[in-house]
Amino acid sequence: MDDFILYVKEGFYHVINFRIGAYDHVLFFILMAVPFLFNSWKKLLGLSLAFTVGHILSLILVEYGGVRMNSSYIEFLIVVTIAVTALYNIFTAGRRHRDHANWITMIFALFFGLIHGFGFASEFQMLAAGAESKLLVLLEFALGIEIGQLLIIFIVLILNFLFTGLFRFNKKEWVQIISAIIFGMVLPLLISRWIF
Prior knowledge:
Elements: H1 2-15, H2 24-33, H3 41-65, H4 71-92, H5 102-128, H6 134-166, H7 171-192
Helix pairs in contact: 1-6, 2-4, 2-6, 3-5, 3-6, 4-5, 4-7
């Protein structure tokens, strides 16, 4: 039971991490949740699960398939996923098609989860070193990731409700402002991690 709690906590703190350069999950899931309200919780749960599945798949590919990725490319691509999501929010905020493009956003969440998972692969290998069942460690870790992501989503939904419901901010402008702020935060990272 102690090991279960340890690995779930590791997954949770992998997501809820505010160290400089390590808050990519937080920014990504703020962007994922900011266009939605509580009535879209099923869609957000699906997006979160798709991201976690992608994360798990990349760790499985590294751990059992021997797949290796250049860490500088992955670090750059992680920032790209955040920037792309921010720009998508800015340019599609308030458009009705977002509600009907569920499978497209699921595929993107899965793909972005793969990228983020590759970014954690070496740390996961150290974490799981010596464990009897690395697959069990991976599932426990994934549970922690999912709990952390859902916490971020829940907090963002509360803020969305407060600002667009109680304080009457225009929802489209709220999404664009939050997304623009996050895009501004990752732009220096995008430049510093530029690989071309």
